[in-house]
Amino acid sequence: GQQLNQSPQSMFIQEGEDVSMNCTSSSIFNTWLWYKQDPGEGPVLLIALYKAGELTSNGRLTAQFGITRKDSFLNISASIPSDVGIYFCAGANNDMRFGAGTRLTVKP
Amino acid sequence: EPEVTQTPSHQVTQMGQEVILRCVPISNHLYFYWYRQILGQKVEFLVSFYNNEISEKSEIFDDQFSVERPDGSNFTLKIRSTKLEDSAMYFCATQGGRGTEAFFGQGTRLTVV
To answer: How far apart are the first and last CA of chain A?
Structure first.
């Protein structure tokens, strides 16, 4: 199956620190996506990546689509308290599959 | 901004009862999905739907589950005879094209008692 391995499972950081999380798969994906989920809400798209090697930024967020098409990472620079939440990677071919999520806690 | 709308936001049902969860997709979107998220756990794929038929379904999506788009608007998920372990958040997602980003609804919290 199209399993995604996302790490780390959780992170506890100080406000202002940078964050890095990644996703790997044994399968190739044509699209990699990163979502953030706040408690009680649906996942909200942060960044979409469509080409191998693509590096895309959205404010303090930067994500890359791995050359092998089997991995992606998300970086958050200078974290702030509202960055708290669960971050999910997703790989898409015909359907989307999600990683298990990275739970981010930011201490002021 | 267009959005995916799900109703109800919260449903409590007795074990063994049927429930229908509803989703209004973004207009002109063609691909529809249901995902499930048990509290504190990952988002799990249930089923994808395109051109009025199921494209793919997971092992979770057994005979108790069905989907349809009866009126070309609402996309529904029916659970025929609910079990306690069906308690979860159910998210609808829609895509405009294959492999593009999906947009999620706010979810329906289903509680089976």
So the answer is: 40
| pLDDT (mean) for B15-24 | 97
Residues A74-108 have pLDDT tens digits of: 999 999 999 999 999 999 887 788 888 999 999 98
Interface of A with B in 15-74 (CB under 8 A): 30-31, 33, 35, 37, 40-45, 48, 50
**Contact check, Cβ <8 Å, A98/B56:** no
Q: Which of B28-37, B46-55, B81-90, B92-101 has the highest mean pLDDT?
A: B81-90
Spatial separation of the C-alpha atoms in residues A16 and A70, rounded to whole Å: 30
Chain B residue with CA closest to A99: the answer is B42
**Window 66-85 of B, Cβ < 8 Å to A:** none
CA distance linking residue B52 with residue A58, whole number of Å: 35
Amino acid at B53: E
SS3 A39: coil
Q: Are A57 and A75 in contact (CB under 8 A)?
A: no
Comparing C-alpha atoms, which of A77, A94, A95, A84 is closest to residue A36? Answer: A84
Give the closest residue to B92 by CA, choosing from B39, B38, B36, B50. B36
Which has more confidence, B37 or B97? B37
